[in-house]
């Protein structure tokens, strides 16, 4: 009898899978090809780096200026970018940030300290991910800290020379050679930076998201949030300059996403808000999201994000604008007296808060808020008038009087209140309930009253 060990069985199965996949996958593991001759590094360009709370930069001001009818401020540029359409500011910062040194004792890789030969065979070993790992290990591309550090240093040298395309390949390989470590975290960050500074913003956004997905408390969090916010603003400006259907593919410009430029902008803002909810750009990202929806006429979505800003960020510098624009969003989301009146009630509450809390900050907007509140009262009175008129037409004068009197009491300065007073005079002598024209029939079914 031939006794087959479990380890030998696992090796046989894995080798069979490797034999099928090796020809197709070894080509992708062989390394990153060098940059073709003649390709030059991207020329140095500059845009204003995002700084939270500075009125001179464009970190949140250009949206507000347009929404409030003011002339938008134009960020200063030392050199125009050739890849961005006219009137659209590119997302890249002036210079890369200084990278902190890699931790001297990175976290131990899961592959270390455990022998594969001693581990029992499991069905998960046949999964595509494990097969790929075994294939890399068999081909000599498994976890190796020394090789990973060498690749990282080579990438940093290329990055310093602004050879971002080749540096990205080095960083990607370095991250794969020593996973689950501080070295991998830095390599993933520099990979995203390389794509960012080579104007591959769609790939850079994915790389930043992948970094925050695996290392949600990354030491590069502040820089990543700044980059994502800049990319989101770039997508938004690009969509405004050349809007198209979300399903329209982009097959030419690598600086733009393949689909849905506006949706990618909202995704970038959302990443900033969710990954760093107490950071300096969290309220900016919420305000930018709300303003973007407001400009597209999606007032319910805009009102939702204005509410988040008003409720969760009471110390934000955007509070006055969030109140004013939130009020307008609620009012425009209202569909009429035959539909839900909740937006009107919420708008009235916001208008009252705005008038009392920001009395000295709104200046020219104060009169507009007062006019808006008068308009809200008129619309709410019209809702009660519609109900009163319904009972009036049914000759249920008791119910009609109740709603007419309610209009006069709650909205005394509206036009509906004046009409309600006149109508109350006309129905003064009318009975509370309509006459029973089928008394002979209803008497057959006596009711308890």
Structure, briefly:
The protein has 449 residues and is mainly α. It is 57% helix and 0% strand.
Question: What do you see in this structure?
Answer:
The chain starts with 5 loop residues before the first helix and ends in a 7-residue tail after the last helix. The chain has a domain of 214 residues: Alpha Horseshoe (Serine Threonine Protein Phosphatase 5, Tetratricopeptide repeat), CATH 1.25.40.10. 57% of the residues lie in helices and 0% in strands. The N terminus is likely disordered. Helix 12 packs parallel to helix 14 and helix 13 packs antiparallel against helix 14. The chain is built from 17 helices and no strands. By secondary structure, the chain is mainly α.
H-E string: HHHHHHHHHHHHHHHHH
Distance between the termini: 96 Å
Shape: elongated
Overall SS class:
mainly alpha
Total helical elements: 17
Average residue-wise pLDDT:
77
Major beta sheet summary: none
Unreliably modeled segments: 1-14, 16-83, 103-115
The CATH topology assignment of the domain at 42-101 and 143-296 is: Serine Threonine Protein Phosphatase 5, Tetratricopeptide repeat
**What amount of the residues lies in strands?**
under 5%
Rg (CA only): 33 Å
Could you name the CATH homologous superfamily of the domain at 42-101 and 143-296?
Answer: Tetratricopeptide repeat domain
Quickly name the level 1 CATH class of the domain at 42-101 and 143-296. Answer: Mainly Alpha
Helical coverage, percent range: 55-70%
Per DSSP E runs of 2 or more residues, the count of β-strands stands at 0
Any idea what the CATH architecture of the domain at 42-101 and 143-296 is? Alpha Horseshoe
């Amino acid at each position: 009898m031939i006794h087959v060990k479990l380890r030998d069985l696992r090796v046989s199965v894995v080798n069979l899978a490797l034999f099928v996949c090796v020809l197709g996958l070894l080509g992708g593991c062989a390394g990153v090809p060098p940059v073709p001759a003649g390709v030059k590094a991207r020329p140095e360009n500059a845009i204003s780096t995002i700084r939270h709370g500075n009125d001179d930069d464009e970190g949140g001001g250009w949206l507000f200026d347009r929404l409030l009818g003011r002339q938008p401020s134009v960020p200063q540029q030392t050199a125009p970018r050739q890849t961005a359409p006219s009137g659209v500011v590119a997302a890249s910062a002036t210079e890369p940030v200084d990278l902190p040194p890699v931790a001297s004792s990175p976290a131990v890789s899961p592959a270390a300290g455990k022998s594969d030969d001693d581990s029992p065979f499991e069905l998960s070993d046949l999964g595509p991910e494990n097969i790929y790992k075994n294939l890399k290990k068999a081909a000599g591309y498994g976890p190796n800290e020394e090789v990973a550090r060498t690749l990282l240093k080579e990438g940093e040298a290329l990055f310093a020379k602004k050879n971002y395309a080749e540096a990205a390949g080095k960083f990607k390989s370095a991250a794969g050679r020593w996973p689950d470590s501080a070295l991998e975290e830095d390599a993933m960050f520099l990979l995203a930076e390389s794509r960012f500074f080579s104007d591959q913003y769609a790939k850079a956004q994915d790389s930043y998201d992948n970094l925050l997905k695996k290392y949600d408390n990354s030491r590069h969090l502040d820089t990543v949030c700044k980059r994502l916010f800049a990319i989101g603003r770039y997508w938004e400006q690009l969509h405004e300059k050349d809007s198209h259907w979300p399903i329209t593919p982009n097959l030419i410009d690598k600086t733009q996403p393949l689909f849905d430029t506006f949706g990618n902008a909202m995704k970038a803002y959302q990443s900033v808000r969710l990954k760093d909810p107490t950071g300096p750009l969290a309220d900016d990202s919420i305000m930018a999201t709300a303003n973007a929806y407001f400009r597209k006429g999606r007032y319910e979505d805009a009102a939702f994000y204005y509410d988040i800003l008003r409720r969760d960020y009471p110390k934000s510098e955007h509070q006055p604008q969030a109140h004013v624009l939130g009020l307008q969003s609620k009012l425009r989301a209202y569909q009429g007296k035959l539909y839900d009146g909740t937006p009107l009630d919420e708008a009235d509450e916001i208008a009252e808060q705005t008038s009392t809390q920001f009395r000295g900050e709104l200046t020219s907007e104060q009169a507009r808020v007062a006019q808006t509140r008068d308009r809200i009262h008129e619309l709410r009175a019209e809702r009660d008038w519609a109900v009163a008129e319904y009972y009036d037409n049914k000759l249920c004068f008791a119910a009609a009087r109740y709603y007419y009197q309610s209009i006069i009491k709650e909205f005394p300065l509206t036009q509906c209140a004046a009409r309600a007073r006149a109508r109350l005079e006309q129905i003064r002598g009318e009975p509370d309930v309509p006459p029973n024209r089928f008394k002979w029939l209803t008497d057959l079914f006596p009711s308890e009253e």
